[in-house]
Amino acid sequence: MTTTTPRAVVRDDGQPAGAAVEAVRLVNVRKVYGTTANPVAALDGVTLGLPSGSFTAVMGPSGSGKSTFLQCAAGLDLPTTGRVYIQGEELAGNSEAVLTKFRRQRVGFVFQQFNLLPTLTVMQNVTLPLRLAGRKIDRRRCREILGRVGLGDRLDHRPAELSGGQQQRVAIARALVTDPRVVFADEPTGALDSRSAREVLELLRESVQVYDQTVVMVTHDPVAASYADSVVFLVDGRLAGGLDNPTADAVAERMAHLGETHDVQAGA
Ligand SMILES: Nc1ncnc2c1ncn2[C@@H]1O[C@H](COP(=O)(O)OP(=O)(O)OP(=O)(O)O)[C@@H](O)[C@H]1O
Q1: Is 19 contained in some domain?
Q2: Gene3D superfamilies, alphabetically (predicted)?
Q3: CA 68 / ligand 1 centre spacing (Å)
Q4: Is residue 57 part of a domain?
Q5: Which of 111, 142, 193, 218 is the most buried (most CB within 10 A)?
């Protein structure tokens, strides 16, 4: 009989072989802005994995690196050092064309200011990512998604004819139309009244619970964060702990004491 010494098999992204592939994984990500003489580390060694089908809120004080985190995780920008994986595939290559293709195939975005094209109708805005990716436009599916966000009767309207909340729902439909694995949202409720904000957050949660997508959302608002499955906190570009099943009160309480938990690198 022969015996073999068990050997841990580790995948290229640092995860044990056989582990479920995470939707997003950052490994020791640093992003440095500024000059060599005066560098600013917007992200300072962030290692974090977000499971598929999870809804994560990213919080922290102003300047803590939240937007930089989202930009790097989503492939809108490249880290100075470290690695980023979406659904197990490394976001690599330094040409903008490669990054653009990667984003078009795998991720969707929702921004605070909606970023709809004003001259296009609702339907044209929603089909745009498919056109840009050279993919077939299935109008029935687009109508279905717009119905899902409550805008099935507004297909021919232009953004200026819609309320802020409705515009953000168009933006969500546009983010979902390519069936991305991960939707990144940067302050998606920042420009909305509380009722519209609630509708937008419910749609994001539905895309996780019903459609098994993964959502990563930067927010300043503890109520918005309470719609997520978990919250990760950033302070000075470093992870400063997390919170599962967050309530708005628990999030607000943590935010109030964030500086004190500064050096905890969680979720690695
Ligand atoms: N393009 C840039 N050039 C130089 N410094 C930058 C740049 N972008 C961000 N920074 C710096 O990096 C740090 C993190 O910025 P970031 O925008 O990620 O923070 P944030 O948490 O999203 O802030 P806020 O909540 O105010 O939007 C800040 O010190 C910021 O000044």
Answers
A1: no
A2: P-loop containing nucleotide triphosphate hydrolases
A3: 7
A4: yes
A5: 218
Would the CB of 63 count as within 6 Å of ligand 1? yes
pLDDT digits (tens, 9 = 90+) for 5-19: 344 454 555 665 656
Buried b (16+ CB within 10 A) or exposed e, 158-191: bbeebebbbbbbbbbbbbbbbebbbbbbbbbbbb
pLDDT digits (tens, 9 = 90+) for 92-150: 776 788 788 888 888 999 999 899 999 999 999 999 999 988 899 999 999 999 998 99
Domain membership of residue 222 (yes or no) is yes
Helix, strand, coil share of the chain (percent; to 5): 35, 25, 40
Residue 87 inside a domain? The answer is yes
3-state secondary structure of 184: strand
| Residue ranges with strand state E in 162-213 | 182-186
Q: How many A from CA of 65 to the centre of ligand 1?
A: 6
Describe the strand order of the beta sheet including 214-218 as a list of residue ranges. Answer: 107-111, 182-186, 214-218, 55-59, 230-235, 238-244
Contact 37, 52 (CB under 8 A): no
Query: Is the minimum distance from the CB of 82 to ligand 1 under 6 angstroms?
Result: no
Q: Is the pTM of this model over 0.90?
A: no
What spacing in Å lies between the alpha carbon of 155 and ligand 1's midpoint? Answer: 37
Domain assignment of residue 77, given as a range: 24-261
**Closest to 24 in 3D by CA, of 45, 59, 55:** 55
CATH number of the domain encompassing residue 126: 3.40.50.300
211-242 pLDDT tens trace: 889 999 999 999 999 999 999 999 999 999 99
